[in-house]
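Entry:
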Amino acid sequence: MIQQLGEERSSKSIRDEGGLVLLPKQLWSSVKREDCNDDITCSEVGWLLDEGRAITSKCIFSGKAQLKEIAIANETATQI
C-alpha cells in the first residue's frame, strides 16, 4: 500500500549518538534493530543542511526482509 501525505504533519523523532555513523559532507547514517515480535530493522540516513535543519530518509524492514515503510522528512530540531 502506498500512502501519500497531502499536507504537513509533525512528529517527534529522538536519536541517540550511539547508533549514528558520521559521514563526509554533513551526512550521517544509522541502523537499528528492535527485538520485538517482528525483529524490525530501521535504516536511516540524513543530511544536515544547517544548524537545526536536516533532510532524512528512513526505511523499516521486517525480520523477513520485507519492506514495511519508507519515509522522507524535512526535520527541524528543537530543545528538549
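The chain has a mean pLDDT of 79.
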